[in-house]
């Protein structure tokens, strides 16, 4: 899910809740101009000072919608939300990197294309004699998977509503522990096997330990933004590889389609779990706990003891450590609409940032599913790159269109539907229609 | 085939395009967006003739020989026409909606720049689609031309890809210029030259086919292929 971030990161009160979160994730303000002022004076002061600061700075990519309550509506026109192409590129790069990692792994490491069983979430096998039976099984698998995801998301919303923050944080920490240690160990093992490189256990232990520990610190606490982004890309790629390996063929495609529909429903419908999450967070005037969300903004702060606040916070996806994969991660993320975060109460006398840059947040689930689509395209083809490239371009264009819509509608939007739709259309049409045509052209040396 | 062939052909085919991208497009995010949009339009324009091919295949399923050849050529012509149509559509889209929604405060890029970027987008996508499978095959085992075909298959393909990419850039610029100035004969020229380039290989092939048929009589089999990779 795609949201804006207004990079006004003020100081976040450091309490037990925030101690796990990195410093200020730049809260995105909602674009509700008519919104009544904040509850306490502190907030008011902070918003005003930020507004005046925003006046001076010229940020071409400014998310300027959220001028806050003190601003007369007349000025809103010039501050209409402009979503610069810069933000588009800020998202293209990580999405591309994630896809490149997944495609490179799929094409070189055999392990991820071998079928070694299925997850418990997709119990029906696809090794059936008839096509109809196979289709039925894949639809049933999809239903089971989607219902698991829905249940987990609702569970998360319920936990959030009843303020069980510790539980959620613990859950997230366990999930990222598993991703960063276990899956990385397996991945490294397979890569070493593919290239026939020997590595002794002490070295392996050292490497995995360092990678994992630094990852935990960066994601859950504080760290340089670039490192955090790199880790998020890595864990999305790992997750996508797990999906590609363990989801059977047809089930994967049906699941992709079903997830886009779910994403659309959950983020946009009034009774959708994600929407309820946002509203709850708004009522409490607190930021929605930073989920597995990739953020592209950078905020530098002056005069603060904290390091540069990456906008990432604690992992929030409800994740059950017993489960083998956190498939609902993907849901959760698409679910976190960050656009409506209220700014955190800051100290009135606090010095604001020297420089701000606004950015956009994209849920990690979106990364995962984009990579699953492209990875499946790469795995399925008979060494064919055209399909992979077509899906890649389709996803990027879908992302571009979603960002355009974000600029128009100014609220959190699901990032999956358009991209996955384009991706699916292009995958099936390129694989079945275009590929034979291009093969014939290439062998006859015809260029169009 | 060796890594030298792979890298050599890759850089022959994509080197100039990569240089153009790095030096002129990569710096500005708006241009990158337009490039990707251009690539997308080319892709869509490729889908339609493929649909047509699928329909035709149902009709002319098992006929071999010249029919398939002519069908192929016809599909090539059709796809070229559709590509130019999509170039026109891209122009219309850009000219009408403007760039306001993407980047209102900066000055809108000029139409010339847009023409260049869209041409490059079309070209890169076309080149990549045509050549990347061949390129990946060149890393695998095999001998080129073992059945009497030209051993320069890769080199020829690489140069043709390079030519096509650059031609798409030029066609884009000329086309948009013609649209701007409302000189419709320019559009026709672009279409004709595109058709000429795409079919010049097949014209030779068709002539050779006809020559074969004349020499051997209609019952003979012929080998129309100029380049064939084995071990694929």
Automatic annotation (TrEMBL), chain A:
Region (Disordered): 1-71
Primary location class: endoplasmic reticulum
Subcellular location field: Endoplasmic reticulum membrane; Golgi apparatus membrane
EC numbers on record: 3.4.23.-
GO MF, one annotated term: aspartic endopeptidase activity, intramembrane cleaving
UniProt cross-references to Pfam families, sorted A to Z: Presenilin
GO biological process: amyloid-beta formation; calcium ion homeostasis; intracellular signal transduction; membrane protein ectodomain proteolysis; mitochondrion-endoplasmic reticulum membrane tethering; Notch signaling pathway; protein processing; regulation of calcium import into the mitochondrion
Membrane topology qualifier: Multi-pass membrane protein
GO cellular component: centrosome; endoplasmic reticulum membrane; gamma-secretase complex; Golgi membrane; kinetochore; nuclear inner membrane
Bias-annotated ranges (Acidic residues): 52-61
Residue stretches of biased makeup (Polar residues): 19-31
TM ranges: 88-106, 139-160, 167-189, 201-219, 226-244, 250-269, 389-409, 415-434
Family matches, as InterPro entries: Pept_A22A_PS2 (IPR001493), Peptidase_A22A (IPR001108), Preselin/SPP (IPR006639), Presenilin_C (IPR042524)
Keywords: Endoplasmic reticulum, Golgi apparatus, Hydrolase, Membrane, Notch signaling pathway, Protease, Transmembrane, Transmembrane helix
Keyword Acyltransferase: no
Top-level taxon: Eukaryota
Protein's job: Probable subunit of the gamma-secretase complex, an endoprotease complex that catalyzes the intramembrane cleavage of integral membrane proteins such as Notch receptors. Probable catalytic subunit of the gamma-secretase complex, an endoprotease complex that catalyzes the intramembrane cleavage of integral membrane proteins such as Notch receptors and APP (amyloid-beta precursor protein). Requires the other members of the gamma-secretase complex to have a protease activity. May play a role in intracellular signaling and gene expression or in linking chromatin to the nuclear membrane. May function in the cytoplasmic partitioning of proteins.
Domains: entry comment: The PAL motif is required for normal active site conformation.
The protein's assembly and partners: Homodimer.
Family membership noted in the UniProt record: Belongs to the peptidase A22A family.
Protein name, entry field: Presenilin
Species per Swiss-Prot/TrEMBL record: Cricetulus griseus
UniProtKB/TrEMBL annotation, chain B:
Localization, UniProt: Membrane
Biological processes, Gene Ontology terms: Notch signaling pathway; protein processing
Keywords: Membrane, Notch signaling pathway, Transmembrane, Transmembrane helix
GO cellular component: gamma-secretase complex
InterPro entries: Aph-1
TM segment ranges: 29-52, 72-93, 113-132, 153-173, 185-211
The keyword Transmembrane helix is annotated on this UniProt entry: yes
Membrane topology of this protein: Multi-pass membrane protein
Organism of derivation: Cricetulus griseus (Chinese hamster)
Full protein name: Gamma-secretase subunit APH-1
Function comment: Potential subunit of the gamma-secretase complex, an endoprotease complex that catalyzes the intramembrane cleavage of integral proteins such as Notch receptors.
Quaternary structure and interacting proteins, as annotated: Component of the gamma-secretase complex.
Protein family (similarity comment): Belongs to the APH-1 family.
Main localization category: membrane
């Amino acid at each position: 899910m795609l949201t804006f971030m207004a990079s006004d990161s003020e100081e976040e009160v450091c309490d037990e809740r925030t101690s796990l979160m990195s410093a200020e994730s730049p809260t995105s303000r909602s674009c509700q101009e008519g919104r009544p002022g904040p509850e306490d004076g502190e907030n008011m002061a902070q918003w005003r000072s930020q507004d005046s600061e925003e006046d001076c700075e010229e940020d071409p990519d400014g998310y300027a919608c959220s001028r806050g309550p003190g601003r007369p509506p007349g000025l809103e026109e010039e501050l209409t939300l402009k979503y610069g192409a810069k933000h588009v590129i800020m998202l293209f790069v990580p999405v591309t990197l994630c896809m490149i990692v997944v495609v490179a792994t799929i094409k070189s490491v055999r392990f991820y294309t071998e079928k070694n069983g299925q997850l418990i979430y997709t119990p029906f096998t696809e090794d059936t004699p008839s096509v109809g039976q196979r289709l039925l099984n894949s639809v049933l698998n999809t239903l089971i998977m989607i219902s698991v995801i829905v249940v987990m998301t609702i569970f998360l919303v319920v936990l959030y509503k009843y303020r069980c923050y510790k539980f959620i944080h613990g859950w997230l920490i366990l999930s990222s522990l598993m991703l960063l240690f276990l899956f990385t160990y397996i991945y490294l093992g397979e890569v070493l096997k593919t290239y026939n490189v020997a590595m002794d256990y002490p070295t392996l232990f050292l490497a995995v330990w360092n990678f994992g520990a630094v990852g935990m610190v960066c994601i859950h606490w504080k760290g340089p933004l670039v490192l955090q982004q790199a880790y998020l890309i890595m864990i999305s790629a790992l997750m996508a590889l797990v999906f590609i390996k363990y989801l059977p063929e047809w089930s994967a495609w049906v699941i992709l389609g079903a997830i886009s529909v779910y994403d659309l429903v959950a983020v946009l419908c009034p009774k959708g779990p994600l929407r309820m999450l946002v509203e709850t967070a708004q009522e409490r005037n607190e930021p929605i706990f930073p989920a597995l969300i990739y953020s592209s903004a950078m905020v530098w702060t002056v005069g603060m003891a904290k390091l540069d606040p990456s906008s990432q916070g604690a992992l929030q996806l409800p994740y059950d450590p017993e489960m083998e994969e956190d498939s609902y991660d993907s849901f959760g993320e698409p679910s976190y609409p960050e656009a409506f975060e209220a700014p955190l109460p800051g100290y009135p006398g606090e010095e604001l940032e020297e420089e701000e840059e606004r950015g956009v947040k994209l849920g990690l689930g979106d990364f995962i599913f984009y990579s699953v689509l492209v990875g499946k395209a790469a795995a399925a083809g008979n060494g064919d790159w055209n399909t992979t490239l077509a899906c890649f371009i389709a996803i990027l264009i879908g992302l571009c269109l979603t960002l355009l819509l974000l600029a128009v509608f100014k609220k959190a939007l699901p990032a999956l539907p358009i991209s996955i739709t384009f991706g699916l259309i292009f995958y099936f049409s390129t694989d079945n229609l275009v590929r034979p045509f291009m093969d014939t052209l290439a062998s006859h040396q015809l260029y169009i | 085939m060796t890594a030298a062939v792979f890298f050599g052909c890759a850089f022959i085919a994509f080197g100039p395009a990569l240089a153009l991208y790095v030096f002129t497009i990569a710096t500005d995010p708006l241009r990158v967006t337009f490039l990707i949009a251009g690539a997308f339009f080319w892709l869509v324009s490729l889908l339609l003739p493929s649909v047509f091919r699928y329909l035709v295949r149902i009709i002319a399923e098992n006929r071999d020989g010249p029919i398939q050849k002519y069908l192929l050529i016809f599909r090539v012509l059709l796809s070229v026409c559709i590509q130019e149509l999509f170039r026109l559509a891209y122009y219309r889209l850009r000219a009408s909606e403007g760039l306001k929604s993407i980047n209102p405060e900066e000055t809108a890029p000029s139409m010339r720049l847009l023409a260049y970027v869209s041409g490059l987008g079309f070209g890169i996508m076309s080149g990549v689609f045509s050549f990347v499978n061949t390129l990946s095959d060149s890393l695998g085992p095999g001998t080129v031309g073992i059945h009497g075909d030209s051993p320069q298959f890769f080199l020829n393909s690489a140069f043709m890809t390079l030519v096509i990419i650059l031609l798409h850039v030029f066609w884009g610029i000329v086309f948009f210029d013609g649209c701007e100035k409302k000189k419709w004969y320019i559009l026709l020229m672009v279409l004709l030259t595109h058709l000429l380039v795409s079919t010049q290989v097949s014209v030779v092939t068709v002539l050779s086919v006809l020559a074969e048929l004349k020499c051997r009589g209609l019952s003979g089999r012929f080998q129309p292929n100029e380049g064939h990779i084995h071990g694929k």
